[in-house]
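Q: For a teaching handout, I want to show students what a protein-ligand complex looks like in token form. Below are the inputs, and the small molecule is magnesium ion. Please produce the holo structure.
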Amino acid sequence: MNAILTLENVSADLGGMLVINDVSMSIPVGQIVGLIGPNGSGKSTLLNLIGGTLRPLRGSIAFDGREISRLKPDAIFRLGIGRAFQDPALFVNMSVLDNTILPIQGQRGETPWNAPRRHLWVHEEQGNALSAQDALAQVNLDGHTRKLASDLSGGQMKLLEIARSTMGAPRLLLLDEPTAGVAPRLARQIFEQINEMRHTLGLTFLIVEHRLDILFDFADTVYVMHQGGILMHGTPDAVAADRQVREVYIGY
Ligand SMILES: Nc1ncnc2c1ncn2[C@@H]1O[C@H](COP(=O)(O)OP(=O)(O)O)[C@@H](O)[C@H]1O
Ligand SMILES: [Mg+2]
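A: Here is the structure, written as tokens, with magnesium ion included.
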């Protein structure tokens, strides 16, 4: 299978502690890949390594066959890896539309409307670069563009964060707990939107998620982290049936 992202023997430390230990993984293009594991097992740190906010001690991270582990976060973003954080970093006194445009503006120092177009031009082969309006429509927020971000519900804020991460036409999205703090029914809706974006935009997703019931309904592959390493990976069914995985989750 064609991998869009490959990690080989990646290790990293934080404050002198080895928190990522010899991690290898392969993210097939077009898949929704889940990343699960108990609290503190290293999931967010792994996303930081891929997104470039942390550098590995050892190992290789390749996006589309190109080594990215020494690149800065903005360079990794421009190559096509988008990111949404667990706590939406929204500007509550700005409109939903402006919140969506802002990261692009900040990245390039250009006018809000030229930035996405330039990106469209630079990466014309992607053909699906999104304007903010389109990005918001993808998550059913196009009726709320003029509202202040502070007037959105918790679930809508998560959707706005996801819409914003698609600006700049990424090919791989890293999502850290996209349903955190969201009511169960809305959590499922968020995954339905993600699944739709995967098909309409040809996106690949790596998603940290603790709601296993919902994740397992949408993920193609699930990686299980434990104490900084990968315990196993496989289909949701294989992961759910694994004895070691059950043991790791006891008491969690
Ligand atoms: N800034 C930091 N400095 C030192 N240790 C950290 C820091 N952030 C996280 N850790 C430690 O790294 C490990 C992995 O954390 P994290 O990646 O946040 O786990 P997860 O997202 O799976 O809950 C944990 O043991 C955590 O205590
Ligand atoms: Mg985390």
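A: Two things your students might notice: The first strand starts at residue 3 and ends at 14. The chain is about 40% helix and 25% strand.
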